[in-house]
Automatic annotation (TrEMBL):
The lineage of its organism: Bacteria, Pseudomonadati, Pseudomonadota, Betaproteobacteria, Burkholderiales. One of its GO terms (molecular function) is acetyltransferase activity. This is Nodulation protein L. Residues 6-60 form the Maltose/galactoside acetyltransferase domain. Belongs to the transferase hexapeptide repeat family. It holds the Pfam family Hexapep. It comes from the Bacteria. One of its GO terms (cellular component) is cytosol. The keyword Secreted does not apply.
Length: 186
């Protein structure tokens, strides 16, 4: 039995974004974003109800300040007390897990969406995703970009404006473009 395009997407395989089921999920997410982003003046509790409608998991006390943008939402899992400031973007064609207590600055972008390196596959409209995992008690400075397939360990710090192209170990501080882990201070 062959997989549907959505099943391929969820399995991290190349899939066609133009597939009707995927397009329907995309349209539903866009309609949800209009409602969520219009709720900026609402109490955090009202926005949490909206988050729970669309996201895969929303831990107790998790907050996203609108505006917020994502591909689908259902591949995003927020732990307890997670905070995302204004203007964050999560391209969630694959899973994005954000651990308890993680703080994410404004305009941070988290990408799971990737594209084939082969030009024929790209021109055929194929896309794939690689999951992003962010541990507990991580601090990601404003404007940082987290690329597909990256894992950031617990208690790590990502400097503002950094472009994270590879895994960052627990407790490390990574800065720059591409982000490099700083030597620990003694």
């Amino acid at each position: 039995m062959s997989l549907s395009e959505k099943q391929k997407m969820l399995a991290g395989e190349a899939f066609s974004f133009g597939d009707p089921e995927i397009q329907a999920d995309d349209a539903a997410a866009r309609a949800w974003m209009v409602r969520f982003n219009a709720a900026l003046a609402e109490p955090a509790s009202a926005r949490r109800v909206l988050l729970a409608e669309q996201l895969g998991a929303v831990g107790e006390g998790a907050v996203i300040r609108p505006p917020f943008h994502c591909d689908y939402g259902y591949n995003i899992r927020l732990g307890k007390g997670v905070f995302l400031n204004f203007n964050c973007v999560i391209l969630d064609v694959a899973g994005v897990t954000i651990g308890d207590g993680t703080q994410i600055g404004p305009a941070v972008q988290i990408y799971t969406a990737d594209h084939p390196r082969d030009p024929a596959q790209r021109s055929a409209g194929l896309v794939f995703g690689r999951p992003v995992s962010i541990g507990r008690n991580v601090w990601i400075g404003g404007g940082a970009i987290i690329l597909p397939g990256v894992t950031i360990g617990d208690d790590a710090i990502i400097g503002a404006g950094s472009v994270v192209t590879r895994d960052v170990p627990a407790g490390a501080t990574a800065v720059g473009n591409p982000a490099r882990v700083l030597a620990p201070h003694h």
